[in-house]
Amino acid sequence: MTQRILAINPGSTSTKIAVFTGGTPVFVETIRHDAMELASFGSVMDQEGYRRDLILAALHRHGLAVADLAAVIGRGGLMRPISGGTFAVNVAMLDDLRSCRYGTHASNLGAILARDLADEAGIPALIADPVVVDELSPLARYSGHPDISRRSIFHALNHKAVARMTAAELGRPYEDLRLIVAHMGGGVSVGAHDRGRVVDVNNALDGDGPFSPERSGGLPAGSLVDWCFAPGADEAEIRRRITGRGGFLAYLGTADGLEVDRRVAAGDERAREVREAMAYQVAKEIGAMAAVLEGRVDAIILTGGLAHDGDLVDIVSRRVSFLAKIMVHAGEDEMGALTRAALRALDDPGTIRTYPA
User: Fold this and answer.
1) Would strands 86-88 and 125-128 be described as parallel, antiparallel, or unpaired?
2) Cβ distance 8 to 113 under 8 Å?
């Protein structure tokens, strides 16, 4: 019997949902949330019932009920660091997410909503490859000072999904391959995948690695200190410069990659150079990850929304193609990736992991 999966991906102002039958989408929908309605809730966690009712209404519109599903899988939120894979939503996970012990974000609701809905039908509630996946090697954790350890926060869901897709294309198990995955989107993360584990990756959230459309990436430490101690320096503003107002936005006044492409096509030399500088930094990070893998690289995968930009892909490829074959999986199919993770878990329940692991 073909299994039907509901995938849930909550964002700050929307909830993406999708139902797949096997690998085929029945529907994919983005439920937009009115800012005034969201403002009526004291916290993100208070939105659970509101979002749950909207999901049930969407299922009803498409002639479906929770009883028609084989499993519900949510986008994993901010929780303790875990290895990659598919996890059952349990009490320990719900406690960490509801208390926002590891941070507050709408994605925390993914597992909560999955469990809430799945319990109605007595079916599995799952998450897969949240941003907190941490498989760093011991050496990768060193920063240069014992007060600071390098952290693993990256686009784990898409990294793992495209790595598995590439493994299938190469006709080899993911667990046998050495891959470099460069996710290029609103943030950029470049990871070294060593036989199924991401043993090194830049922290794409806090400011590490290449700059991106809206993030500053790894800034010179001394100049960053100057920012922090400048007259009138404000911590929140400095964090915004690093993670929300850097990159393309700071240099060009836009974080829209398509707009940057239009400017380049119109002959804007500044836009061309900024885009090439980002590609240059991505290529440097790929080179660093090749060193992590000691030069034994089976493929380099370029992914994320910016991988739709053929010129950008060509610039990166020109600099790193000597290392390994370049494979492009443009975009970020979050709903499909979640669904495939759920189907793998249902096919082999022994692979479902227990949180914390």
Assistant:
1) antiparallel
2) yes
pLDDT in tens, 201-246: 999 888 799 999 999 999 999 999 999 999 999 999 999 999 889 9
Q: Exposed, middle or buried by CB within 10 Å (0-12, 13-18, 19+), for 80?
A: middle
pTM score: 0.92
Q: What percent of the chain has pLDDT over 90?
A: 90
* Burial category of 198 from C-beta neighbours within 10 Å (exposed 0-12, middle 13-18, buried 19 and up): buried
- Show the tokens assigned to 106: 């709408």
In this structure, the dihedral spanned by the alpha carbons of residues 292, 313, 166 and 162, taken in order and rounded to 10 degrees, is: 90
**pLDDT at residue 12, rounded to an integer:** 83
Q: Which tokens belong to 126?
A: 């799952």
CA distance 30 to 11: 10
How much is the pLDDT for 205?
Answer: 80
Q: DSSP letters along 227-293, please?
A: HHTSTT--HHHHHHHHHTS-HHHHHHS---HHHHHHHHHTT-HHHHHHHHHHHHHHHHHHHHHHHHT
Of 344, 349, 48, give the one whose Cα is nearest residue 173.
344
